[in-house]
Amino acid sequence: xxxxxxxxxxxxxxxxxxxxxxxxxxxxxxxxxxxxxxxxxxxxxxxxxxxxxxxxxxxxxxxxxxxxxxxxxxxxxxxxxxxxxxxxxxxxxxxxxxxxxxxxxxxxxxxxxxxxxxxxxxxxxxxxxxxxxxxxxxxxxxxxxxxxxxxxxxxxxxxxxxxxxxxxxxxxxxxxxxxxxxxxxxxxxxxxxxxxxxxxxxxxxxxxxxxxxxxxxxxxxxxxxxxxxxxxxxxxxxxxxxxxxxxxxxxxxxxxxxxxxxxxxxxxxxxxxxxxxxxxxxxxxxxxxxxxxxxxxxxxxxxxxxxxxxxxxxxxxxxxxxxxxxxxxxxxxxxxxxxxxxxxxxxxxxxxxxxxxxxxxxxxxxxxxxxxxxxxxxxxxxxxxxxxxxxxxxxxxxxxxxxxxxxxxxxxxxxxxxxxxxxxxxxxxxxxxxxxxxxxxxxxxxxxxxxxxxxxxxxxxxxxxxxxxxxxxxxxxxxxxxxxxxxxxxxxxxxxxxxxxxxxxxxxxxxxxxxxxxxxxxxxxxxxxxxxxxxxxxxxxxxxxxxxxxxxxxxxxxxxxxxxxxxxxxxxxxxxxxxxxxxxxxxxxxxxxxxxxxxxxxxxxxxxxxxxxxxxxxxxxxxxxxxxxxxxxxxxxxxxxxxxxxxxxxxxxxxxxxxxxxxxx
Length: 665
Prior knowledge:
It is a single chain. The N terminus is likely disordered. The protein contains 27 helices and twelve strands. The strands form four sheets. It has a six-stranded parallel sheet with strand order 3-5-4-8-9-12. The longest helix has 30 residues. By secondary structure, it is of the alpha/beta class. Strand 1 and strand 2 form a beta hairpin. It starts with a strand and ends in a 9-residue tail after the last helix. The chain is elongated and about 90 Å long.
């Protein structure tokens, strides 16, 4: 251990090049790329990002603490210029190229949100932006060319605050106090993960902890701890070999065993992060270390930042161009294209600008670079904001459906349900008419508004009916107990709403239940059907309606309409992901869980003039398409469905115990 000013410890040879860290970068970036390119073996490849965070925590904290301890001061200006030279040039080239290709390929409804994400990425807040949109693993993630920049947002926010934190709390401190500062930040961050995951107040906690910087700080701190552990392992080759093997094993286990359902960070982040820490500590490993220090691994590590920047836009833009999922041969081709573009970006952009980064012994005028870099990024941000404000229109071409029509169409499907009765405001007479003779609960998942809109039309002429919206089971994390369904999630009042389903006083007031869900007889509807069975147990004779499923598409219907310039493409078998004709009686009875007394309303039978013929299915009303996304019915189409129910199922509804569609008074 060397010492600097004030006898503060400075890691010996801390600034020497460490080949194994570039090799570790290669492991991280390849894990992410193979995961993103759809290689199922790498089902947990997203943990490569966690490994990157550990590496950054180590390198950046090492740089800051060594300067503070070695000189008694810290040059913030030099630090941020170095970060700019490291990140901005390659980022600017990638953003510009992505903007050009997106403008050529994307329709306005895709280009507008891309513009906002571009501006967010420039200002290092894309992690916050994508968090507000919710979902790294959502169905539209493959249409967001800059989604991967969320991790850059986390790192850049870390760069912004971390030097100040260490300067305020770790300067003029001995090694023990510096470790205490790191430990306090790391434990606070990990504790925040624990609080969010177990607190049952945030139904979207998985996205929250995934995207936001405070939940990721403990990973960066794990890397920083290597600064103080490394000197303890000098000349202990056996430990280095053991640590290298164990670290690589932990990372490998995470990459190959985790899935999209694995909640990261929190506990699941510990194996890859501790694995990365052990690898960083193993600089003297020769046997297992060669896996990371061989020329190929080191070279991939050197270009890993460019690879990370390039690979996702390449995949997203290509997938949109072919308008289909990527095959294995195409994935291989895209990988080698990524390698080529990354090498060009590294040698002609990254390396060029990093060569003139200032340090304590070498400084060149930086004013031109800083002003030019800031101006370039502001221009790119301006282009993004312009796309957002212009509605995504670049070339002045018109689409069958405008961005405004699509946005408002998706919002309007909630109009009736927002102005109607739900479980949380049953004591508010302006919304809920609890004194009416017939109380009907509409229950389901994200398709619950479809059922509500349809039955609002069914009973619009019967003033004795009060429709009550449950408010969707989605993200309520319902558990089934002997006494009934239970939710511990307080967000969106899940706990209160689910508790009412087990309340005999409430269920006794109900005169009917409408179950509305996408693909209602799919194997993942066990919770919903178990709840329906429980409600039937509480009130044996309560009538139940199950709304059948309808067409699901592989792409958003609005996108299909605009791209292929025809509404009928939304029923084209090539783009149909779920065919409603499979809901035959034998299919519905194939699992005992579906064995309940209910009235099945066949949407396909109502909306398709010929059995088993998708081309005969209605796919639009006079005003709008059947759905704008991949399956949620538009308001006018759902109310049109309601009219078909009145015309074809009125007698069945009455026979099953529901009130008649029209009042008999």
